[in-house]
Amino acid sequence: MRTSPLLLALPALSAAQFEQIPFYDQVKGFFAQASNTISSAMPSAPSSPSIPNPVAAGAAKIAAARVQRLTVENYNDILKPGAATASPGIEEWMIFVTGGNKTCFGKCERAETAWNESVALLSASTSPPNLAMLSCEQEPVLCNAWAVGPPTVLHFLLPQPLADQSTPATTCRSFGLNRTTITAPEIAGIHLQEKYLEKTPYEGFFHPFDGPLARYGLSIPVGYAIWGFSLVPSWAFMIAVSFISRSLMSRRMGGGAPAGGAAPAGGAAPAPAAAT
């Protein structure tokens, strides 16, 4: 049986076709480029909303149930030395000071998450402290009265009254929190590892319980005054300063003028009028 020359040439043609790799790569590259062009031209699907962190959400709920909110109206009733829930001797408090866009420039979110997570650690200790939160965004008067800004943790040791009803000094310590690196174990360590003992107590003018303002009942009025000044725009202060300075200058210039009829200093007396 005679074999057709065309049949004999098919294997060679097939081998030659697969050996033309450059041409195959060019075609493949063309289709790949076309696919990328079409994909970039098509509108992207809207991104799905972010799913909240279940751990952070659960910690926030625990903190909301166990942390008391301080306000100008209730802080004296809540932070009362010798409360009924106090253990014999001293009542320990940890107060988290936070803020919002105005008072914390929108950078207190990490600190709030760390605080919420630390609440579970603090509550599980053998002698948990009392916990409270102060928002300078909602309570600017109280923050100004205490001269405290967010994010901060205030640690108080409130002593019970003595037998003669006198109250010993209250120990106050302030811990400023890093807005970008603070963690829950660091906050919990203030109590669990007694880190507060490494901090020098505050005994200054704005002490919430034993400072001069608090003893004479002026802390809240001063807080209102500072908060009121913060609401006044800077240009109003400039106008007021300019007006006061001009008033003082005009008074000085007016007070230095010679009285009527008096001879000017260093000059001759005026000549008498000629007789008519």
Distance between the termini: 168 Å
CA radius of gyration: 39 Å
- Average predicted confidence as pLDDT: 77
Q: Mind describing the biggest β-sheet?
A: 5 strands, mixed
Count of alpha and pi helical runs: 10
How many strand units?
5
Oligomeric assembly = single chain
**What is the string of SSEs from the N terminus onward?**
HHHEHEHEHEEHHHH
Uncertain runs are 3-24, 41-49
* CATH superfamily caption of the domain at 54-230: Glutaredoxin
- CATH architectural type of the domain at 54-230: 3-Layer(aba) Sandwich
Content-based structural category? alpha/beta
Please indicate the percent range of residues in DSSP E strands (runs of 2 or more).
Answer: 5-15%
| Main sheet strand line-up | 1-3-2-4-5
Per CATH, the class of the domain at 54-230 reads Alpha Beta
Outline, from the CA principal axes?
Answer: globular
How does this model look, in words?
Keywords: Membrane, Signal, Transmembrane, Transmembrane helix. Residues 1-16 form the signal peptide. This is Peptidyl-tRNA hydrolase. By secondary structure, this protein is α/β, with parallel strands linked by helices. 44% of the residues lie in helices and 11% in strands. It has a 5-stranded mixed sheet, with helices on both faces. It is globular. The relative contact order is 0.10. Residues 3-24 and 41-49 have low confidence and may be disordered.
